[in-house]
Amino acid sequence: MKDIWNFPDIVHLKISEEKGRCIIANRDIKAGEVIWLEYPFIYIVFEEFLDSVCDTCLKYIGTEKLANIIVCNGCSVVKYCSNICKSNSEGIHKFECKLMKNKFKNISQECGVTFDRVRILFRFIIVNLFSKNNFGIFSNIQHENKLLYSSYEHVKTLVSHISEFCQERKSIYLSLAFELLNIFENSQYHKTFGLDNYEIEASISLSTMDLVEILCIIDSNSFGIPIFASSYYSYYYDNILKNSNSSIENPSNSLQLSSILLSPNIIAWGLFPYASLINHSCEPNCSYLGNDESTRYPYIEIRSTTNISKGDEITISYIELYESRKQRISQLYKTKYFICRCTRCKQDLYKSMDYFIEGILCYNCAKLKNQKVLLKCISSNFYDILKNEDYNQCISILEQESDLISIIAAQYKCTNCQLIYNGSEIANLIKNIEDIIDESSLLNNEYGDVHRAIELLRSALDNYLLKNTQIHCLHYLIYRCCKLLGFWSVIIKEWGYVEHYIGQMIKCNIAIFKNKNNLDTSNLYAARAIALENLGSISEAQKSWNSCLAIREICCGCEHSLYRFVARRLHN
């Protein structure tokens, strides 16, 4: 079989009996080295960001003057930051332009899928049927900066997991495929876009079932593209943070909020076939990062975050890592259709960092104020099955049992005083905390009452969780509470609380993770530094900026805007 992959010399592709395809280091790799850069085979900007992000380079344009923003005259939906970006994308956009405002939305509603899924599949069809034609950036980008690029051949080799998708979803995808292929059979569409003038790729013939499989491939292998909106941070800092009485509105979406804290946000969706071959680990040695706003095209960068020895596997994380073991495994199974077999998930619970993340304190021993005294906090049955690699039984448990049911079914024993607890006691504790988190999130997200949301969650965290010491201070639910309270406190500019809750999260990350070069941790240091500056604690803020910068030098490199922003703040 022809080898279609063109990996850089630093790594090679290996077939493993246990894991399938793996990416292996050809030499020792130092922390901070770029493994590769990759341009997406297809990508779209998420619908919620179409109004504020350039559709080509993904630059944030929400703070630009209207005169500087180029709006597509055809659809009035897509926006560009420059004529260069408009020109680079018009080769592909002209096929979807007149469909963006109404047709895609109608198909979305009729088929029961998102607008984004309609658009990304349509782009897939266009790129493949007319791959011999010049689509500007879509065909020429591979010649710039030695980016890896891919073709339909690469996409076809990716695992679809189509057999794991439920029949209902496959039926929905089938109706979507039918609707989109009907567009190309419409003579009026042919006439409008002069399709007869384009050379169709003879080797590619797409049926509805082909497109169903492609959608399954996209679901199983796609990446969110993280971008840091530096222009919004500058705008917010200059106009809001420095003026507590400013009438300028607070952040209105997640991109703006994350940018205030110098944190990237997922604003686009793409298929990166090379990166899709990198396996997940809950203790990854690499990370992926989106492009800078200064570039004219989107890409992701695979970069080592710790020293990697020759022969080691290159791994990244697909999910939030500060979660319980079963939740991580369950999320990966439900979204990526595999059972995680990484070292962290297979390690004996009592020797793992998960021992603390899931830690429940014994009421009797908690009086000793010993935060290392724990109950066995998850049914050992599931972990024993995982350890023995009985994956069919693991899948059965994941599909049939909620976390609370598995907790109720277990028996818990204090490792110190041997006191026995019923599973229902532990389940009630977990459920009460989760209910409070859900209620406070509802107050903020649905009713816009961030003040009541903060009051409810803060009261629970301070009085119910910490003072009564029912769960370990490193527990994932404590972390989740601190995360919500930290972000919500930014919105109302309560910087003392921002510093407190973000500081708690930093302590958790340092205590739990072996690899300290984590972009999420650097973002927390940045958020804490911003809070400290607003509190007037400049020397402490400088220390936090320095910690952030050290991590970003490894995770981003000195040329990335995430690094440069922090460096400039330290030198000002």
UniProtKB/TrEMBL annotation:
The keyword ATP-binding does not apply. The keyword Zinc applies. Residues 54-97 form the MYND-type domain. Keywords: Metal-binding, Zinc, Zinc-finger. Pfam families: SET (PF00856), zf-MYND (PF01753). Residues 8-319 form the SET domain. SMART domains: SET (SM00317). It comes from Cryptosporidium andersoni. InterPro entries: H3K4_H4K5_MeTrfase, SET_dom, SET_dom_sf, Znf_MYND. It comes from the Eukaryota. GO terms for molecular function: zinc ion binding. This is SET domain-containing protein.
